[in-house]
Design a protein that fits this description.
Blueprint (H helix, E strand, L loop, with lengths): L4 E5 L11 H10 L3 E3 L11 H12 L6 E6 L1 H11 L9 E5 L24 H6 L4 E6 L8 H10 L2 E5 L19 H12 L2
Parallel strand pairs: 1-2, 1-3, 3-4, 4-5, 5-6
Helix pairs in contact: 2-3
Length: 195
C-alpha cells in the first residue's frame, strides 16, 4: 500500500511558506500524509509551460493515494495536469481553493491567460479523480462565486462557501494573511476515509 501523499500547488506570487500552506502541511503530516508544497517556477509570472512540467515532476507516478490541493491559479495548473493523464492514471481526490475555469478578466490579468489558451477538458479531468471539493469565499475580490457552481456542475464538486475570507491569501493579494484553512484538511480527511 503506497503512502498517502498530498501536493499543494500555490497561487500566483505564492511560495511554500505562504498563507495557509504551512498549517495545512503540518496538520496533514500529523495525520500521516506525506505533504509537499513545491515552489513553482517564476511565481510572479505564472507560465503553464513551466508549471506543468514542475507539477508532473513533483507528482511522479500518480495513484489513488495522491491528493492534489490547488489555490487560485494552482487550481488551473491541477486541471491542466489532470488533462495529461492517461486512462489508467488517476488521483485520489482534488481540492480547489478559490478555483476558476477561465482567465477571469484578460485585460486585468494578462499574466494568467496562458493557462487558458485551449478549452478545459472537463469530462477528461472528471474521469481522473473520483472526488472534487471547491472551497470559495463570498467576498473574493478576484474569483466570483459563479466558479464554484461551474466546478460543481462540471466535476460534481462538493462546494464549501466561506464568509469574508477574501482570496484565502495574504500580502501577495493585498489582504490580511489567511494562515489557517481547516476546511482543506477536513476535505482531504473526508476523501481518504472513503478510499
Amino acid at each position: 500500500m503506497n503512502r498517502k501523499r498530498v501536493i499543494i500547488v500555490h497561487c500566483w506570487s505564492g511560495y511554500p511558506e505562504y498563507c495557509w500552506y504551512p498549517s495545512a502541511k503540518t496538520e496533514l503530516e500529523k495525520l500521516g500524509f506525506e505533504v509537499s508544497v513545491p515552489a513553482m517556477p517564476d511565481t510572479d509570472n505564472p507560465d503553464l509551460k513551466k508549471w506543468l512540467p514542475k507539477l508532473k515532476e513533483v507528482v511522479g507516478a500518480p495513484d489513488q493515494n495522491t491528493y492534489l490541493i490547488g489555490h487560485s491559479i494552482g487550481c488551473a495548473a491541477i486541471m491542466r495536469y489532470l488533462e495529461t493523464l492517461s486512462d489508467n492514471e488517476k488521483v485520489g481526490g482534488v481540492v480547489f481553493v478559490a478555483g476558476f475555469t477561465d482567465g477571469l478578466d484578460a485585460e486585468k490579468y494578462p499574466e494568467i491567460q496562458n493557462f487558458f489558451t485551449t478549452p478545459i477538458l472537463y469530462e477528461k479531468i472528471k474521469s481522473r479523480s473520483p472526488k472534487f471539493v471547491a472551497i470559495a469565499s463570498d467576498d473574493d475580490p478576484y474569483v466570483p462565486l459563479k466558479y464554484s457552481e461551474i466546478l460543481k456542475d462540471k466535476f460534481g464538486a462538493e462546494v464549501i462557501v466561506k464568509h469574508n475570507m477574501k482570496h484565502f491569501s495574504g500580502a501577495a493579494d493585498g489582504e490580511e494573511s489567511c494562515t489557517q484553512l481547516p476546511d482543506v484538511v477536513s476535505a482531504i480527511k473526508k476523501m481518504t476515509k472513503k478510499s
